[in-house]
Every structure is written in C-alpha cells, then in structure tokens.
Hints:
The chain is an alpha+beta fold. Helix content is about 20%, strand content about 30%. The chain has helices at about 10-20, 25-30, 50-60, 65, 165-170, 190-195, 220-230, 330-335, and strands spanning about 45, 70-75, 90-95, 100-105, 110-115, 120-125, 125-130, 135-140, 145-150, 155-160, 175, 215, 240-245, 260-265, 275, 280-285, 290, 295-300, 305, 315, 320-325, 340.
Amino acid sequence: xxxxxxxxxxxxxxxxxxxxxxxxxxxxxxxxxxxxxxxxxxxxxxxxxxxxxxxxxxxxxxxxxxxxxxxxxxxxxxxxxxxxxxxxxxxxxxxxxxxxxxxxxxxxxxxxxxxxxxxxxxxxxxxxxxxxxxxxxxxxxxxxxxxxxxxxxxxxxxxxxxxxxxxxxxxxxxxxxxxxxxxxxxxxxxxxxxxxxxxxxxxxxxxxxxxxxxxxxxxxxxxxxxxxxxxxxxxxxxxxxxxxxxxxxxxxxxxxxxxxxxxxxxxxxxxxxxxxxxxxxxxxxxxxxxxxxxxxxxxxxxxxxxxxxxxxxxxxxxxxxxxxxxxxxxxxxxxxxxxxxxx
Length: 343
Ligand code: 1HN
C-alpha cells in the first residue's frame, strides 16, 4: 500500500491500483529524469593501518580453507546493501604462509591488486600468476582460480568484483573444483608472454569477452608509467594515467570492470573531475590528500578509497605518488552510459 503520497485526494484510486498489482509511476519515481546522475553511497577511505590488524587477527582465528575466502568486505557506510559502491564489491584478502584458498569458479568476475607479499600466486585457468606487490591479476567470469602463499609472511591483496552488478541480473552462481588446487597445464605467467608482448598467436582465437592476459606485473606497469613521465607533461586531471587493456581489442580487461594505473608528480594538485563511474583507488606509492565530494582524506601506501558515481575527485600530492584504480567504466561504455566532466 502506498503511504505519504503527494496527491492525497488520489489515495482511494491508488488503493484500487495497488489491489490490481500496479502502482502510479508519478508517486514512486520522484527523480525519474534528473539533469545530472545521483551519486549512490559515500566517499570513504579504508586505512591499511586499521584494516591490516583486523585481517591478522582474523587469520589467528579462522583458516583460509575454513573461511573459503578470508576477506574483509569493504562496506560503504552510505549504502544499505553490501558493496563498496552501487555496482562494485571490494575487499581485502589475506592468505597466510602455506595456506591455500581452494579452487572454485563463478559467474562474477574479479580483479586482484597485491598490497603485501613475500611470495605466492593465484592460479587462473591452469596458469600460476605470481603475486608480488603491485601486481594486477584478473580472474574473469567462469575461470577456475585458487590462491596460495608460498612465502613466509602474510599475502594481502585488494579484491574487486562485479558482485552487485551480476546480482542485479540474478546471474550469480558457481562451483567448487574437485581438488583444492586446480591442475596446472601452462607455465607460470604464460598469458602475459603469449598475448601481452605486442604479438599474438597466429593460430587459434581468443573468443572470450575478456582479456586473455591474466597477469599485469607491476614491473611492466612502472616501466610504462616512467616512459610517459619521461616524455609527456602530466595531464592536469590525471597526471600520467594508463588503462590496463585487452591486447586483442584495446578494450578493458573485463566486460564488467576497468582498471587503471596513474602516477602523479610530487607537490602536484590535479584539477577536479567527475564521471558516471564508481571508482576504487589503492595507493601504491606516495602520500597526499584526496578530495572526494565534500570529504578530504589524507592517504598513504595501501590505503583504499572509494569515489561514488558522479562525485568530484581531486588529488594533491605530497610526494610522487602511484595510484591503482578500478571502476565500472567498462560496462558503462558498452551500454553507452559513460560521461565525464573535467573542470
Ligand atoms: C571470491 O571468489 C574471491 O576468489 C574473493 O578470491 C572475494 C567475494 C565474493 C564472492 C566470491 C576469490 C569474493 C569471492
């Protein structure tokens, strides 16, 4: 039954409509057509100094095998359902030395960005992808994946998944592998050498809607950013910014998630920008201040921040800084929804 309606004299008519399993659109969609998008959720920062001890404590109380995935899900305080943003899930995952997070696959696509490592890997579709700090790894929809820490310290990374988006379609499902660790049938980091060296195999097609490269090592990203820095002036909004791309198409790594790496000079103030995408940032190197909407956050290494859709973003660095980010820009572009404004 509709309550607190705008047109009170129509309440009897509304009651009849409700009985007939209908609703008056003019009462339920106040903001059906607005001139600008409405941000969902709050700007927020999760500090590594706060989250790391919580993860370590969880690690002393529950094993990776028992938890299936030992993840602290980042909860956007401005949303009434789980998620870092309207369309995205993010979490911090930890695997302890010798532990395995068992093999499974699901329709939800995931990306990982490594924050702390002394050794370990994610196996994706028969291939081990090394996890060193700064490495970026994808586990696309329906690809088998398991994680192992073969170092002697905690292995901690940022997970990004398209869970809310896939959930909206009602298309969430998955299965466990019969063994904890899937069979390995390619050499380590095979996909980046095979597809990501400016060459592609002459025979055989990659027919999937995601990048055939699963692993984008930080070493190569740092080299690419340095090459930009050497030759180009920093962009006033983004500094030196690159997008992780699918070498087959030049498009984004996953159909549901886009990812970026950017470098900002020391003592640099970016101009303000806003887009329709929801964006999650992880601080790889450096220190500074982010102004997101009306919030100001000072950030340091391994902190994670969220900028909801259509929210102003501006950075001011203290030292030179490198930021990793992921967003829902990929599906927005596919659907023709993406817009941006650069002040
Ligand atoms: C998942 O499979 C992983 O494989 C991480 O590491 C986080 C959050 C929700 C559902 C599945 C992983 C996840 C997840």
